[in-house]
């Protein structure tokens, strides 16, 4: 049974500003579907344009926070999960606090005095999404916050840790502290490749923390980008997953397991020098609302079973169940109660 505080997440809490747009909008801002990037100056007018020209929805998001909320939803044990990240002292920040508490997650936000709460433009075309994150306050997280006794207590209490690769751009020292604690105490430390730009432009930071990862999550595009930047002469996802699982480890307490999703194609799991594939639940195209949060939901579902020490097959099943629920709704949202068996 999952106990209170068993799973801790750290990441960038962002408010998703989600709208169905058109190809012209994507072209205007030079953005691609199925990609996630950090906003540059040229993208900044996009946020106002979205809310003035399209019907937008505001949904509490951020990759790690999504995964933690989905795990919490499936666990149905109040406070089984905790989360840290940085928000601003503004209405979006208040909204975020309210939303997370309702979800049953024990949030310890660092609140920045100056920067506004981060936002993420979610541009949807034909059910596929493009993400453009304007981190703002999320970029201001400091390891000093993590080290405060009331926050470090969450680290001590947890047995499992999950951090999206996106957090490498914000506070690699916080990640290192948690990773080292996990290795020293035989706990389970997990990360996500998160986006091609993380694999490409934050390669050094990712490589530094990779030895501490007991689970590596990602999708097929991220896996192929990872392989390319490491000079691996293959774009075969199964081979790449295997090579990542065999990367040297900082602690021998746990083997590394790599889990790669491929949209509607089977999930690839590499462990012990072997690869297994698991089919996903196929959804008729007309039922697809948007893919925003699908990968995050998969991880959340997976973690909900992992923290209960269920076999990997069950973890993957729960991941597929959660992502199937989320893609039939706008953003990373879910009904009141799960019906996963």
UniProtKB/TrEMBL annotation:
Keyword Transferase part of the UniProt annotation: yes
Organism: Trapa incisa
Top-level class of the enzyme under EC nomenclature: transferase
InterPro entries linked to this entry: Adenokinase, Carboh/pur_kinase_PfkB_CS, PfkB_dom, Ribokinase-like
Keywords: ATP-binding, Host-virus interaction, Kinase, Magnesium, Nucleotide-binding, Purine salvage, Transferase
Name of the protein: Adenosine kinase
SUPFAM superfamilies (alphabetical): Ribokinase-like
Domain Carbohydrate kinase PfkB as annotated: residue spans: 26-335
Native organism taxonomy: Eukaryota, Viridiplantae, Streptophyta, Embryophyta, Tracheophyta
UniProt-annotated catalytic positions: 296
């Amino acid at each position: 049974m999952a106990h209170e505080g068993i799973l801790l997440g750290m990441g960038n809490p962002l408010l998703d500003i989600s709208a169905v747009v058109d190809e012209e909008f994507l072209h205007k801002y030079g953005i691609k579907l199925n990609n996630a990037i950090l906003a540059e100056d040229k993208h900044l007018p996009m946020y106002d344009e979205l809310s003035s020209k399209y019907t937008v929805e505001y949904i509490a998001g951020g990759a790690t926070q999504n995964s933690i909320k989905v795990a919490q939803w499936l666990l149905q044990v109040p406070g089984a999960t905790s989360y840290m990240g940085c928000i601003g002292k503004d209405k979006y920040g208040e909204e975020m606090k309210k939303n997370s508490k309702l979800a049953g997650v024990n949030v310890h936000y660092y609140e920045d005095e100056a920067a506004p709460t981060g936002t993420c433009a979610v541009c949807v075309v034909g059910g596929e999404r493009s993400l453009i994150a304007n981190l703002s306050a999320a970029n201001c997280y400091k390891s000093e916050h993590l080290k405060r006794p009331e926050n470090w207590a969450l680290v001590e209490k947890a047995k499992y840790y999950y951090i999206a690769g996106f957090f490498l751009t914000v506070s690699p020292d916080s990640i290192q502290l948690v990773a080292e604690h996990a290795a020293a105490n035989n706990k389970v430390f997990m990360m996500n490749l998160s986006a091609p730009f993380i694999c490409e432009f934050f390669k050094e930071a990712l490589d530094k923390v990779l030895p501490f990862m007991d689970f590596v999550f990602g999708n097929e595009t991220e896996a192929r980008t990872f392989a390319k930047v490491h000079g691996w002469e293959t774009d075969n996802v199964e081979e790449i997953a295997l090579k990542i699982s065999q990367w040297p480890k900082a602690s021998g307490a746990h083997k590394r397991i790599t889990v790669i999703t491929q949209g509607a194609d089977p999930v690839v799991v590499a462990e012990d020098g072997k690869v297994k594939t698991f089919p996903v639940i196929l959804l008729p195209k007309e039922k697809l609302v948007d893919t925003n949060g699908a990968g995050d939901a998969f991880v959340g579902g997976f973690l909900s079973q992992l923290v209960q020490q269920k076999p990997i097959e069950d973890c993957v099943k729960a991941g597929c169940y959660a992502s199937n629920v989320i893609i039939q709704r706008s953003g990373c949202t879910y009904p009141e109660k799960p019906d996963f068996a």
